[in-house]
């Protein structure tokens, strides 16, 4: 069923009785050409582009819970292309271009809103670093504008510019940055993949990866064994556990990242604002909630909930930046499991097991990567060659040290860098 304004109108007149389920609920088959482990944003977009760009059809996505129940539905929805180093910047630039056509591509409203992102700076040294970053963004073909203090005040008059510790000197403005509705992105890709014949199998946990003579042959699942010629591990925070099923040890640590939302308010924050020195960032959802977050909980964990010290830290940073936030009531908080790589950059690569691929290491920023990540993993699996915008995301960089990318030295212990 094609969605359109006319369709919504007609369905409204007919009592909304004609809507169909957005995807099928197929039983798993005994064999597929390709099995993707993980029905998050990256797994679903990989399946979609394998079918759409490469004409492959005999594909299953295996999801242990429900589609969109992982990090893709838990993030703070920021979409941007403001990276500095070669290797990352062309990839995220490609991703942002895909975002800009995504709703038309999927015939699905993912509520992509390019409301602009402002990264604040608080010293001359930080301003110089942002000037370099802005020039790199412009050289990449993306957009960047340096704002002085008055330029920021014009856009964000509610900030406390005179705060003692980090007085605001200006900001790097990325007008094409913004937000999207996170779970709609999963649903849109799921619907698109299903329409191209991909089997989306929920409540199907992969419990083992079968190999013979160094080659992958299939997976064991809670719904029985499934044979496959190619298997992709796209399990985000669970990547290390899934890879261990094939005897592999990944350079990944899993940590909790928390986020918060307030009660719905009238429009007040019409940009995404990032206060790096305070480890705080914020935007306002279309429902009116102020959505904000901070840094990682600094211990490795598979619990999708955080700890109180980080709650205190984030609230303090919010109050420092915009005291008005103290008037809003926090509605809820939650956590997601982040797959942190040592250099803050992702991995899209083959593994030493033939036919077995890995997509992980998205750190804080894998939501905005969803389109390009699926595009590039699909390209690698279908053609055997890495896509040119993801050539650096190789697993062996942690062994050889060559081509090591480092946006800002994030990795698992951000506070130690
Ligand atoms: C609080 C928070 C805020 C964030 N904010 C942003 C942001 O503003 N912008 C941004 O770009 N990124 C952000 N991120 C990061 C982003 O959400 C993640 O990097 C990205 O969603 C990870 O990829 P995914 O969508 O495929 O993950 P997921 O949705 O987690 O998908 C992985 C799936 O694999 C499944 N799985 C795991 N093990 C198995 C198994 N054995 N068998 C079958 N299935 C399995 C899981 O159930 C899960 O559904 C944030 C993350 C969090 C937690």
If you had to describe this structure to a student in words, what would you say it looks like?
- By secondary structure, the protein is α/β, with parallel strands linked by helices.
- It folds into two domains: 23-112 and 178-251 and 342-395 and 404-416, FAD/NAD(P)-binding domain; 113-177 and 254-340, D-Amino Acid Oxidase, Chain A, domain 2 (2-Layer Sandwich), CATH 3.30.9.10.
- The chain contains eleven helices and 18 strands.
- The chain has helices at residues 5-13, 41-54, 89-100, 102-106, 124-139, 149-155, 182-195, 239-244, 308-321, 370-383, 397-400; strands at residues 31-37, 59-62, 78-79, 117-121, 145-148, 170-174, 178-179, 199-201, 206-212, 215-221, 226-233, 253-264, 272-275, 280-284, 289-300, 330-340, 347-350, 356-360.
- Strands 1, 2, 8, 9, 10, 11, 17 and 18 form an eight-stranded mixed beta sheet that branches. An eight-stranded mixed beta sheet has the order 5-6-4-13-14-15-12-16. A two-stranded antiparallel ribbon has the order 3-7.
- Strand 14 (280-284) and strand 15 (289-300) form a beta hairpin.
- Helix 2 runs parallel beside helix 7 and helix 2 packs across helix 10.
- The longest helix has 16 residues, at 124-139.
- The protein starts with a helix and ends in a 17-residue tail after the last helix.
- The model has no long low-confidence stretch (mean pLDDT 94).
- The protein binds flavin-adenine dinucleotide.
